[in-house]
Amino acid sequence: MTLTGKVAIVTGSGRGLGLAYAQELARQGASVVVNDVDQATADEAVAAIEAQGGRATAVAAPVGPTETAKRLVDAAFDVYGRLDIVVTNAGVLRDTVLWKMSDDDFDTVIGVHLRGTFTVVREAAIRLREQGEGGRIIAIGSPTGQRGNFGQTNYAAAKAGIVGMVRTWALELKKAGITANAVIPVAATAMTATVPYFAAAVEADEKGEPMPPFFRHDLGFGTAADVGGLVAYLASDAAAGVTGQAIGVGGDRLQLWSHPEPVATAYREGGWTYDALAESFATELGELQSVGETFPPLPEELQRPRA
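and the corresponding structure tokens:
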């Protein structure tokens, strides 16, 4: 086991992707602080990990407030005597188009995803630096944060912000031997379960059957367990040289997302006036960048009749 003796915090790990991360970390030998807003759900996750021979303890609290971050870090030290790994996975959705999104819709998602990642990592970084043995920060992003998605202003902002924070933390924490990376998962979740395009894959997953190769290979779409291996690898000593990266994983596919870089550059003596831009914007910069994700047509055998 590659993480024997290590201690991890995984936020939002009562079910779904977070539980898969916690289970894989425990399978690799780490002791895990499980977190969920609901005590019963957190306790069930701990029981599931212990049933597989792992070690875990539960902290039931909403992620976002600094008080929760302190409770999580304190639990790691109080129960296991140290901290090595932090995985920030907790999140909520409040999907709606921009003109219908309320302040509460926006603030709730930002508060859990973005602020929650910040407060937990800040508290962990303080203690990891004091401990003086390095550490691993693994923040969970999303393709939506990389590409945008209709109806997800709040979620896209939070997930893009998380990747920005990770790049900053990679610089700030380097001297302390603490790496910081973002994982961009593509997997069957409660969100994708409602999307007709993924129906055949979700149906197979729910039955415990292998997903069709079209989803696993062509789309890089898989199960929650498919993401756990990358999380455990980034948490290990083997990944000591990997930091500041956004790494995608899903099904049979592994991806390294690029940092934003200029794709076209033009110069004009005296600067770019309105008239100059109107005349030559398209020719100077060429084809514009795409937004959102596009998927190939489903093979006929995987299509489901509309309700």
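(Above: one complete record from the training split.) The mean pLDDT is 95.
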